[in-house]
What we know:
Bound molecules: S-adenosylmethionine
Strand content: 15-25%
Mean pLDDT: 92
Oligomer: single chain
Amino acid sequence: MHFDIITIFPKIFNSFLKESLIKRAIKKKIIEVKITNLRNFSDDRKHRKIDDRPYGGGPGMVLQIGPIYRAVQFVISKFSAKGGSASGGKVQSSKTRTILFSTRGRKFDAKTAKRLSKYGSLILICGRYEGVDERVAKYIADEEISIGDYVLNGGEVAAMALMEAVSRFLPGFLGKTESLEEIKGHYATYTRPAEFVPDVSSRKKFFPRTPRKWSVPSVLMSGHHEKINKLRKSR
Ligand code: SAM
């Protein structure tokens, strides 16, 4: 799976790509991530401007169509050169999907992540400021995705969430495939110690409505798999 991220803040991804499972997946070549700085596609050589005021007035600045058009064209042609089947214009290839992050987009969930994991390449366009020129949604992106009903400063955090969720569906990304069962919902998990007894004075001060002992349900230590499964399903 190849991810191309188009952003005006490439450094946001630095540590994200160098830690834990994502780092390992890159090393094992399960995923490949390329960050493209939108400013490199500005037609303003001096200030590398990529935004302008909205037509019709209103607050804030809007990311322009030109730099995004050129950046997407650049990543598609690079991918095609490597043997992908992406075509220019509105990307219709079954192998590549171009996603624009937007507050009005389709709500991201595990099913969408699974669907997207079937593509060979995802191009992720991160908006900023007041948003993105509407022609990106109309002519360039295949779909718009929102990661929740709240407004982020930009699409970068959404891109990281999407990359992690999609990657978890890729063969070899996780050690244990059972973790993919999370699509059906999570059950409560516990680990040692079986009984945690917080210091009395701190417990009364910080967690006043809690019991003296914080215990693991005894069924989980019974070795009785049927009862354990029943308990897990009840959560
Ligand atoms: N007034 C704009 C709106 O309501 O759509 C706010 C734009 S927001 C400050 C800048 C960019 O962040 C958006 O264009 C989008 O790319 C991204 N963004 C913000 N919230 C998001 C969310 N919940 N899901 C996905 N992307 C989001």
